[in-house]
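Can't attach files on this board, so I'm pasting raw text. These are the components:
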Amino acid sequence: MRKLLNIELTKLLNYTSFKVILILHLALFSLVIFVSSQIDISVPGFDTVNFFRFPHIWSYFTWVASWFNLLLAILIIMVTGNEFSYRTFRQHVIDGLSRTDLLRGKLMVIFLIAAYSFLMVFVSGLIYGLIFTPGPGAMFAGIETLSIYFLQTVAYMVIGLLLAVLLRSTALSIIIFILLRFPIEPIIRSFFDRAARPFFPMKSVGGLTPMPEFLSISSENTFETAEGGNALSLSEIGLVAEGLPLYLQVIMVLAYTILFTGLIAYMLKRRNL
Amino acid sequence: MQKILEIKRLTKHYGRIKAVHNLTLEVEKGQVFGILGPNGSGKTTTLSIIMGVVHQQSGSFSWFGNSKSDSGWKRDVGSLIEVPNFYPYLSLFNNLKIVAGIKELPVADIDRVLKITNLYSRKHSSYSTLSLGMKQRLAMASVLLGDPEVMVLDEPTNGLDPEGIAEVRNIISGEAQKGKTVILASHILAEVEKVCTHVAVLKGGELLATGRVDQLLGGDQVFLISAPDIKRLEEPLIRAGLLKSSEMKGDDLLITCDPSTSSAELNKFAFDNGIVLSKILPVKKSLESQFLELVK
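---
Top answer:
C-alpha cells for the assembled complex are below.
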C-alpha cells in the first residue's frame, strides 16, 4: 500500500496541471465563501449571516463546495487519461504491478483528493463558524453533512475514473462527464417514471448535498421546524423537487460506487494494455 | 540448463489477423535469444503476452519454470517493449524512481544506470526535453535498474545513432558475458547476428526456424576465388565433386562447396590443376540470405 502511495505521489506532486487545478478549486471555493459572507441581506426575521453560523454552516459550505466537484472529477480523469496516453499503465504492468494495483493506486488518488476537499470544507467551516457564531454554537451539530460530502466527491471521482478507463481519453472523458450531468442523464431520466428518476447515478450523487433550506435557515426557525414541522421547506413550496430520504440516497450512492469500482476492475483486468 | 522462459502453443489473433500462431519456444539461462522477423511478424505481440500486458487466446508461457511468484519474477526481468513509456513532465530521476518503486529496488541504483547509459548529466531534466535517442537510452537504463537476471528488449536500437547503437550492443554483450539472459526482438539481421547466440525466426506469427545462430548460419561453405582464366577451374572442381554450384561475380568466381572444405584444400586443388589463385576469400553466408530463404 505504501509502495503504491509513494508511486502515485511522485506522479502527482510533480504534475503542474494537477496542482493548478487543485489551487483553482481551493481559490474558487474560498472566493465564493468569502464574497457571500460579505453580502449581508437582513430584514427582520431573515438574515443571511445565519448561513455562516453553526450548525447551518455545514450544509451551506458543503453545498457550495459541491459546485466545484466537476474540477475534482477532472483531476482524476486527467491523471488516469495520462496513464493511457503515456502508455504508463502498460509499462507499470511490464515492470511488475498487477492490474489490481493499477486500480488501487487510482483509488488512493481519489481518497487523497476527497480528503483534501473534506479538509478544505472542514477548516474553512470552523474558521467562518467561529467568526460568525455569537457565543458557543452547536459547533459539530450537523457535521455528518461533511462525511456525506466526502462520499459525494468519492462517488463523482469514481464515475470520472470509470469514464477514463472506459474511453482511455482525457478530453473525451471530461466532455462525456459534463454532458452526462447535463443533458444526457436528465434526458434519459425523463423517459422513466417519476418514481424511478431519483435512482439515476448522477442524480443521486448530486442529491447528497441539496441546496440548504434557505427560508428556514435564514429566518432562524429550523428548530421549530424540527420540532413542530410547521415551517415550509423549499421542496414543500415546490422550489426544489422532492427527493428520496437521505439515508436511502447514501445507500444508493455507496452501491453505485461499489458497482462502478467493480466495473473498472473488470475492465482493467480483461483488456489489453 | 535452467529454463528461463517456456512458451507453449501461444496463439493471439486480432480479428482475422494472426498476430501469433501456435508459437512454441524455450529460452535457457545464459542465452542471448534473438527473435527475428519482418515487421508485423508477431515479435512485439509475443513479448507483450509474456510480459502480461496482452492476453493470449490460447497457449501458455512460464517464467523461471514457475518457481517464482507472479509478482516476484518481474523484479528479475528488465523489459523494454516497443517505445519507451515515461511521464514527459517528470525528470529522468523521478521516472526511474517510479520504476524502482514498482520493482521495490533501492533508489540508489538510479545513478548507476544513468551513468551506464550516459544520461547522468541529464538526471534532473524532464523527460520531454530528451532527444529520441536519449529516450531510448533511458528505457535501457530502466531495463538495467536492479541488475535483473533477464532482459527483454524489443528493437532496443530503434532511433539511435550509430554511436548509440554500438553502446546498446556493448551493454547487451556485457550483460551476456555476466551470464545474464537476453531476449532480443529485432528485424535487423546484423544485430541478431552480432549479439545473439540463439535465434527464432518468425513470419506471420508463426515460427519458421529456431536454433543456434551459428548452426542456422552453418551449412555450405562459400568462397570467392579469382585467377586469370578462372573459368578453367570450374570443370575439374565439378569432376572432383567439390563444387555444388558456381556463379561468376565480375572477374571472380563464387563457389559453394561442402561445409568441410577449407581454403588450403581449395588452394592446393587449384595449384594441382595448374592454376594459381590470386584471391581466395571464404564468404560467410549471411543470416540475411538465410533469412530471406526462410521467409520466402
